[in-house]
Amino acid sequence: MSLTVIGLVVLIISAWALSSKAGPKHPPLFPGPKALPLVGNVLPSSKRLWLTMAAYSEQFGPIYSLRILGSSMLVLNSASEARDLIEGKSSLYAPRPPPKMVELAGMDRGVLFESNPVRMRKSRKLLHMVLQPRELRLFDPTLVEKNNRFLHNLLHSPHKFLEHIRKLPAGVTLALSHGYEVQEEDDPYVAMADVTVQNFAKASDPAAFLVHWLPILAKLPTFLPGMQFKRLALSWRQQYTALAERGHEHVESNIASGTARPSLTSLALASELKDERDIIMFTATQVYTGEQLYCTATLSSFFLMMMKHPDVQRRAQQEIDQVIGDERLPVYGDRPQLPYIESLLKELLRCCPPIPAVTRAPAQDDVHKGYYIPKGTVVVVNFWAMLHDKTRYDEPDQFRPDRWLSRDADVNTDPFEVIFGFGRRTCPGRHLAESLLFTAIATTLAAFDIAVPRDEQGNLVEPTGEYSDGGIIWPLPFKCDIRARSERAKELILNSVVQA
Description:
Subcellular location: Membrane
Mean pLDDT: 89
Order of helices and strands: HHEEHHHHHHHHHHHHEEEEHHEEH
Largest sheet: 4 strands, mixed
Membrane topology: Single-pass membrane protein
Number of helices: 17
Oligomer: single chain
Helix content: 40-55%
Radius of gyration: 24 Å
CATH architecture: Orthogonal Bundle
């Protein structure tokens, strides 16, 4: 959105008022790039802000201050600094402020951005019913079934691999959240849910809407010029609400008819939280939307990396052939015996983090290492910078799974201990994501070869390797050549679907 005359006036008045307001003396803010009057720090590019923020560390260190328009920011580019601040003061830094457009669109309803501690505890209790390792094992048959269907779809229509990738986490998470069985073709509920996923990705893009940086614009009347974002947010709110209500009503209807499958929603409706309809409804919906985005982005990166690094693919396949053989497909229980596949998954999350950064905000004023952090400061936890830290990783821009075979990872280097967050806001879906991703990667490598495609003239069509921008990133659409490794691999895939 362009900056309207009204918005500019508001900006100038607000900035002047903030800068001229007298107040008590505090320690200094963390050092950072010099800010301009009124507008603050003007970042060199509005795209891929996490890259710009990572680059500033070379001059200002792993933790520094920024000010963009009316927003005070603290950037954490080091996992050890994030752990020290966010885990060391977990109660103080538990709040996770939603991007303003996410809030306006009502997508802050649910565990992801919940600010009320009582509602948060209830939401977490609901998630523990299905997402803790022991409870999650009850859904292993569902994961295996959906993964076998994914392999079957790859075998019969490999050119639609990106569509099949989306369906895999959709099938698993909707079964887990609502006991919903996804139709193979044109499922109306999945189509509706995909719209929500896309809307959330747009709403969380820090460069897409000025209101992210100038929240006071949200208070202006909708009829004024430049307020289109408010009408867009309203339409997204209505769509998100309709999705949550439809899923909840689906489970209620199945319970009434005696056909409900075990799921987060059905278990919640049989628990002491059964009257918390709003909490159940939006917590269950975010199980789908959150895991769908995360796993879809990561699996898309997996196919891209296998094309770009055939040597890695061959080594991974050799390990599977030696450990598993060709009598069956790998299963999640094989994980301890497949260290190179484990290393591949770690390196995939390190090199291609689907969520480049998240935000926190202190609930009260804080002093850290002698520097002042005002209440409400937007604390940017820059996962991308942490996972590409030159002081912790050799050649951080290189995709090298073997790095995890030759070193001991600690909590500040292991991607599993970084990418899922810190403190009280660690991702509750971590175990589900690890199970789904490991299973899909191991079985895909066991059954298929993934290569760069050729055009009609026989020329290789190399992928650009470009990624989307925003709060969640994934590779831009690309093509690849996917073929069964052998006739035996085809038999295993077809037999697995028949048995299911």
